[in-house]
Amino acid sequence: MNLSAAHLWLIPALPLLAAAVGSVTPRRGRRLAAGAAIAAMLGALLLSILALRAALADPSAHLTSNFSWFDLGNGAVRLGWLLDPLNAFMCVMVSLVGLLIFIFSVGYMEGDEDFTRFFCFLSLFAAAMLCVVVANSLLLLFIGWELVGLASYLLIGFWFHKPAAAAAAKKAFITTRIGDIGFLLGLVWLYDTTGSLLLYDGGNGVLETHVLGDLASQMLAGGIAASTAIGLLIFCGAAGKSGQFPLHVWLPDAMEGPTPVSALIHAATMVAAGVFLIARIFPLVSADLELASAPLHALTVVAGIGAITALLGAAIAAAQYDLKRILAFSTVSQLGYMMLALGVGSWVAAIFHLLTHAFFKALLFLAAGSAIHAAHHEQDIRQLGGLRGPMRTTYATFAVGMMALAGVPFVFSGFWSKEAILHAASQWSVSQLPLYAGLAGVVLTAFYMTRLLCEVFWGAPRSPAPAHAHESPAVMTLPLVALAVGAIALGFLGTPAWPWLQSRLTGKDVPAHSLLEGGSLMALSVVLVATGLGAGWALYGRRPRVSAADPDPLAAAAPRTFAFLGARMKLDELYAATLGRLNSFGAALADILDRWVWGGAVSLLALLGEFTGFVNRGVDEGGLNAGFDSVSERIRGAGRAYSRAQTGEAHGYLRTLAIAFVVLALLVLLGGGR
Amino acid sequence: MSPLQLCLVFSSVLFAVGLAGALARSNSILVLLGIELMLNAANLNFIAFWRYGPSPSSAIGVIFVIFAIAVTAAETAVGLALVISIYRHQQNIRLQEASHLKG
């Protein structure tokens, strides 16, 4: 079967259908809800594989299927589906990782009474993300984008009876909304300038050459091209969704949701959307590179934000105690790497890292979920420990994920994708700072992941919860194994020696390099990884923590820095003190305006209305009613008088007739016949 | 008196007798009889005016009266049917008591 772009809508439609089924399933219909969700994801995966096959038949083509949504004025709002290798790889990744997470959730959420609701939301989440991926219109992409936001809100706040979860859901929703305002403005601007939001439209799409040329040649104040401004506005949205500094604050809090949700958010769906978006519109954001004289290039900003995020996330991750929160900050950091890669111009490296990261981060979260599940929802790494013995499979797969994330050389996928990013950063002509930030991040990543592994799995249990842990059921461990295989194997699709993925994504043959070329950078990063791992082992692995009250070795060495990082660089507090206060002030002002000014005007109007009503009532009751009443009373009186004549006796009528006849006759006779 | 005047006086008397009967009697059948007499007085007038009128040769007056008699016959049939119905209802045919259309 050959899949064309016109059939792509089926891929998001299947999970959406499953969500619809889940929404009407009663609580006891657990098997139905989970079965529908998993079957739909399986279907989406098969379709995605077909789509990938179709896309790889001609990697340089952008197959589209556009249609008109509704007519508006002289034009029409058009949407469409797009099929090219980038979309297809994303589709396969989202549906495959999603499928494994869905299967894992069956085990993880087993005891939850809102099991069906959970699967309904999960399916909605996957459907929204798949819609983002296959859209050929920025408008359609935005619709999916907002649905992703909605589904993440529902899922982060899944245990809404916990105040922390409800607050985290709101935080995620509002923070990403701030970015989305920029996105929406960018879209409006783009539509205003080009009259289209289609990405590829036979030469008229916004990513096609002559439109881009127009956009790049329109100058705003200060010599900034229109495409730069639009690209930066859209990047706001991507930064919000992908947890880039300064909008990353929602991502760690999103850990309040169930762990499979965290895995889904961090690996396959939500945060990937931002990176995917920038990669998707890469021709647009990079259009201004032609203008060497422009004071600001959109990609420079992207690279800067990415480098800051990569370093900041890794530094904060090293000082957290919450198992899931460490992973969350590592996601922030890895997303920073992806943005950095986009910024330095290598969207292929970004997507490569996105794909490998999806696998090993999903693996890490699910393995963490398995450990948390076994340890009765204990997430503090100081309380855990010693899970290596009872949870063999979880431990082994977590270790694979950890090494992939840390970038342990040659075997694990994370190494190759991170290497691609560092290589791209070293080639950047503008500045070498992102490269240095990336290299520093490599050390930190290896360090904090070693710390996490040692604290959770090594040593002896430090509280009753991990002491009674036992291995999770097969429905949870099998997805872990599958993801672990992916976390290793995926790297070999994009090594410099055999750049299959790169050449398929770009549609051009990327020449293979010997591994020795650029070997000095690779050697440097191998050394850095080794340093990180060694430092982690020396501090946490050699002598594992004995009791939960023991101070952290780092905290002992540099208590103030550690506390600062542990408090997430006080960024939340900073926002609360500045933006939060500004917001409360604005709210108070609006409240006063509402209550006194607008409220007063409305009350005055209401009083006026009341007064006229009162006057009306007097006129009605006193004047009009009396007149009508007397008229009707007279009519009734006349009726009464006449009805007296109607006795019903035939004689009476006859008599009246006779008398009338006699009277008439007399009148005629006496009147002389006139 | 001329024959026409005699005829008119006769029909007037006939009419007065019918009217008196219709007004004075309480038996429904007799009231109907009175009405018949009044109608026949009118018919007599038709005949008289025709016979002594300007063109007695054409049979207009006779035809008129024959029509009137036919209509009267039909009317009487309806009237008698009503009388029977009243009798069934109130076990007599006193007209004074038949003052309600509703049962």
What does this structure look like?
The complex is a heterodimer of chains A (674) and B (103). Helices cover 70% and strands 3% of the residues of chain A. Chain A has 26 helices and 2 strands. The model of chain A has no long low-confidence stretch (mean pLDDT 82). In chain B, helix 2 packs antiparallel against helix 3 (60-90). The model of chain B has no long low-confidence stretch (mean pLDDT 89). The A-B interface holds A 647-651, 654-655, 658 and B 19, 22-23, 26, 31, 95-96, 98-101.
Which helices and strands occur, and which strands form pairs?
The complex is a heterodimer of chains A (674) and B (103).
Chain A: H1 10-24, H2 30-57, E1 63-72, E2 75-83, H3 85-108, H4 115-134, H5 138-156, H6 163-194, H7 209-217, H8 226-241, H9 250-253, H10 259-268, H11 270-280, H12 282-285, H13 298-317, H14 323-343, H15 347-374, H16 392-406, H17 413-426, H18 433-457, H19 464-467, H20 474-489, H21 500-506, H22 519-541, H23 553-557, H24 559-566, H25 571-645, H26 650-670
Antiparallel strand pairs in A: 1-2
Chain B: H1 3-24, H2 28-51, H3 60-90
Helix pairs in contact in B: 1-2, 2-3
